[in-house]
């Protein structure tokens, strides 16, 4: 008690009356939020309220004790990737920025157009000016800043033809490197050992400086025919790469002072930025030709690119610390992340700056991207790729109505009610290329991949069908239906497309040209909601609002068999088993029915969903049936017995509209009215899976690292372990975006919450182990 009293006394002494009032209000808000769990179980003042305090308030956590054995909550806001914004002042621009080697500080070059001077300002990771570092003033515009490898100094280059080295402890320039360049110095870079600085200038030369003496260490590197705008050292310090206004890159041997290769050509405009990959094998370049390119160091040949996507000049590029991604900033006001292995867009654009983005840098831990702009702001962005951003992005607010895996399992496609379609990398969760607007504000109700993965077909609310190339996005419009197209499906060989429509018909189309094949198939007396092909491509099954399932013989006579009846409401989904012997159908009547293909008689009814069954799909081996529902769950059933084989997959915040099995690894993709696409891990084979993650996982252990079924999150918000202990109460606002066990990824704009359980043992009677650490 004395400890708590002394802590309160300390708080009162260290804060002003306004701060105390703000703190009091914030504490009141937190207690109000957690009144339910606290009233139910008093220890959850510590076990639940404190873990969430840091995501609900910025001030309260500063005054709270630390408890070692409780969950840790990691919250990611649902806004456009932006984590933090620093306003540098009216009429000021951030020309350049660089992280310290430990990632704790960000050095920035802030230029004032009014005074034509610059300050080198150092910020902490939380956006505060580093109190121990005095802003360092330049008498001219600073074009580039770089941290020394030991983090003690910052080098800056300027229009006054001087490089200054600043001591961060004193804010004083300890050296001025001025005996060399005869024009603006655009770029500076430290050698990996910190002994040298490379610089590039408008005088068309690169110079290497001895940091100790402040004098040129070698003769200037000469060869460019125009201004040198960017320089970077190789990780081993043996080479320097330069980018120039002569549209070329050059690689220089620092020992000989000669070019190691012929000029690297390909860009069609000024090369503004260059960087080595962490392993030293590749170079990335950004140009005023609006492209990014990846080059091989040994040959100087293009490996990837041009990576096109920006609509303005590319001002800066940087590799992620692991070398897997490249980030670029542009005069088009955006920042783009690229997959360094494929050259594909790896994420949606980071949007928010209102003027050109002049500089960009990855933090050393790879978690953050910093950008500096002419709009008087510096922004920190979440570098994780599972939370999207822009209007036409993974993070659009549109409901996802359809999902489909490519036949090789590498991609997942989704269609939304705003008429946009996306293709995602199934392993990384990144967009394979920018979203495609199939039809503005016309819902995509269904989509399907061709067998070879080259084409996607979409059924739209405007009665049209769109056949588009999965890589280029080019598409054809297919017309013929008189009403909304609810369902589309490629035949197994990809040669034919089947569609079902609100006009009560099924139609067949050429799988490449989109031309209609034959007459419409008629027989249903109401809207056709679902279609699916038999594995051999000889038959087609359809489900309709007339409560029936029909099988069509497409071998020549195009016969329609007698309808299969039994459902008491509209049939929303149908699927053939992989062996072609059975058909499954899902209905608004909340049931799944199984049918024998030969006899077309019912062989079983599966119940469990509390609302309409929206989608059903067989696992690739035919042993399981997955179903989704308006009850917000996904369920997995034994295809032979109809028994539930694992607890329901819960997490979606609204109706689950569509699901798809990965053809290769058992994962399940799901789309929902909650605007997210989710990837679920392969469900366990029994209802009581067990796992001791400490024996199988390295590093932090999160709730979603456990197999599905180990923990449960009830509708009351309680996270429970298999023993029923109350581990954590999840506030309502955090439940939809919760990474629950069994979930691998959430793609969407919503805020997400991850719960770390590495040391969360203070539950049940063990809560008494809590010892506050002030």
- Residues in β-strands, percent: 35-45%
Overall pLDDT metric: 86
Low-confidence stretches: 1-19, 386-395
Output the CATH class name of the largest domain.
Mainly Beta
Which class best fits the helix and strand makeup? mainly beta
What is the strand arrangement across the widest sheet?
2-28-27-26
Number of H- or I-type helical stretches: 4
- What count of domains describes the coordinates? 5
Globally, the shape reads: globular
Task: Indicate the CATH topology of the largest domain.
Answer: Methylamine Dehydrogenase, Chain H
| Largest sheet properties | 4 strands, antiparallel
**Based on the structure given, which CATH architecture of the largest domain is correct?**
7 Propeller
- The CATH superfamily name of the largest domain is YVTN repeat-like/Quinoprotein amine dehydrogenase
| Terminal residue distance | 13 Å
- State the helical fraction: under 10%
WD repeats: 135-176, 178-214, 221-262, 264-305, 307-348, 350-382, 393-425, 444-478, 478-519, 521-562, 564-605, 606-647, 649-681
Protein name: WD40 repeat-like protein
Keywords: Repeat, WD repeat
Structure description:
The structure is a single chain. The protein is mainly beta and 774 residues long. It has five domains: 2-70 and 763-769; 82-382, Methylamine Dehydrogenase, Chain H (7 Propeller), CATH 2.130.10; 398-519, YVTN repeat-like/Quinoprotein amine dehydrogenase (Methylamine Dehydrogenase, Chain H); 523-647, YVTN repeat-like/Quinoprotein amine dehydrogenase (Methylamine Dehydrogenase, Chain H); 693-756, no CATH class. The protein is built from four helices and 59 strands. Helix 2 (17-33) packs across helix 4 (44-56). The longest helix has 17 residues, at 17-33. The radius of gyration is 30 Å and the shape is globular. The two termini are 13 Å apart. Keywords: Repeat, WD repeat. InterPro entries: WD40/YVTN_repeat-like_dom_sf, WD40_PAC1, WD40_repeat_CS, WD40_repeat_dom_sf, WD40_rpt. This is WD40 repeat-like protein.
């Amino acid at each position: 008690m004395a400890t708590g009293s002394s802590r309160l006394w300390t708080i009162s002494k260290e804060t002003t009356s306004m701060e105390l009032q703000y703190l009091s209000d914030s504490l009141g808000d937190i207690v109000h939020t957690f009144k339910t769990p606290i009233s139910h179980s008093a220890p959850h003042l510590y076990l639940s309220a404190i873990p969430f305090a840091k995501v609900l308030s910025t001030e309260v956590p500063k005054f709270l004790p630390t408890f070692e054995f409780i969950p840790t909550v990691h919250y990611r806001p649902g806004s456009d990737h932006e984590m933090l914004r620093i306003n540098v002042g009216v009429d000021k621009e951030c020309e350049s920025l660089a992280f310290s080697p430990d990632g704790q500080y960000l050095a920035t070059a802030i230029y004032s157009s009014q005074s034509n001077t610059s300050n080198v300002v150092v910020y902490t990771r939380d956006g505060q000016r580093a109190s121990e570092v005095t802003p360092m003033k330049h008498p001219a515009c600073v074009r580039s800043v770089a941290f020394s490898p030991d983090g003690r100094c910052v080098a800056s280059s300027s229009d006054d033809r001087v490089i200054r080295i600043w001591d961060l402890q004193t804010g004083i320039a300890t050296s001025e490197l001025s005996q060399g360049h005869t024009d603006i110095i655009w770029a500076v870079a430290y050698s990996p050992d910190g002994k040298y600085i490379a610089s590039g200038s408008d005088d068309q030369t690169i110079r290497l400086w001895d940091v100790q003496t402040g004098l040129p260490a070698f003769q200037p590197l000469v060869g460019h025919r125009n201004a040198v705008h960017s320089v970077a050292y190789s990780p081993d310090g043996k080479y320097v790469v330069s980018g120039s206004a002569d549209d070329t890159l050059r690689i220089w041997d620092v020992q000989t002072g000669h070019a190691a290769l012929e000029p690297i050509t390909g860009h069609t405009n000024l090369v503004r930025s260059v960087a080595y990959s962490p392993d030293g094998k590749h170079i990335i370049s950004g140009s005023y030709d609006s492209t990014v390119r990846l080059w091989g160091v040994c040959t100087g040949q293009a490996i990837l690119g041009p990576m096109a996507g920006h609509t303005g000049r590319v001002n800066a590029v940087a590799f992620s610390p692991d070398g897997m991604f490249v980030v670029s900033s542009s005069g088009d006001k955006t920042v783009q992340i690229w997959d360094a292995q494929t050259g594909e867009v790896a994420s949606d654009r980071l949007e928010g700056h209102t003027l050109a983005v002049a500089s960009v840098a990855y933090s050393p831990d790879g978690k953050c991207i910093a950008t500096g702009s002419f709009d008087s702001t510096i922004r920190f962005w979440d570098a994780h790729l599972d939370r999207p951003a822009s209007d036409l992005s993974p993070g659009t607010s549109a409901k996802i109505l359809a999902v489909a895996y490519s036949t090789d399992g590498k991609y997942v496609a989704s269609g939304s009610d705003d008429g946009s379609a996306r293709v995602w990398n199934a392993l990384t969760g990144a967009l394979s290329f920018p979203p495609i607007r199939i039809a503005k504000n016309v819902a995509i109700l269904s989509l399907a991949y061709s067998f070879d993965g080259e084409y996607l077909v979409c059924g739209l609310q405007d009665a049209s069908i769109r056949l588009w190339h999965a890589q280029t996005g080019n598409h054809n419009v297919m017309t013929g239906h008189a009403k909304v197209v609810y369902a589309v499906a490629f035949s197994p060989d990809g040669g034919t497309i089947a569609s079902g429509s609100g006009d009560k018909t099924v139609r067949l189309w050429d799988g490449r040209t989109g031309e209609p094949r034959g007459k419409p198939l008629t027989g249903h007396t109401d809207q056709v909601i679902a279609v699916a092909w038999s594995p051999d491509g000889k038959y087609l099954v359809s489900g309709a609002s007339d409560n029936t399932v029909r099988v069509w013989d497409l071998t020549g006579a195009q016969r329609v068999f007698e309808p299969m009846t039994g459902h008491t409401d509209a049939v929303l989904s149908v699927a053939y088993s992989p062996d072609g012997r059975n058909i499954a159908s899902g209905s608004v009547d909340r049931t799944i029915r199984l049918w024998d293909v030969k006899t077309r008689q019912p062989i079983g009814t599966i119940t469990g969903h509390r609302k309409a069954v929206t989608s059903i799909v067989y696992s690739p081996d035919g042993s399981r049936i997955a179903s989704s529902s308006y009850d917000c769950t996904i369920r997995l059933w034994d295809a032979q017995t109809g028994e539930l084989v694992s607890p329901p997959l819960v997490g979606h915040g609204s109706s689950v509209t569509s699901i798809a099995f990965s053809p290769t690894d058992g994962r399940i993709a799901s789309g929902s009215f909650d605007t997210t696409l989710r990837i679920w891990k392969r469900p366990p084979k029994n209802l009581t899976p067990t796992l001791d993650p400490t024996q199988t996982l390295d590093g932090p252990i999160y709730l979603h690292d456990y197999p599905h079924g180990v923990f449960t999150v009830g509708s009351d918000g309680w996270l429970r372990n298999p023993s029923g202990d109350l581990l954590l109460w999840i506030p309502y606002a955090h439940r939809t975006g919760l990474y629950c066990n069994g979930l691998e990824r959430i793609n969407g704009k919503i805020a997400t919450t991850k719960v770390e359980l590495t040391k969360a043992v203070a539950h049940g009677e063990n809560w008494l182990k809590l010892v506050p650490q002030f």
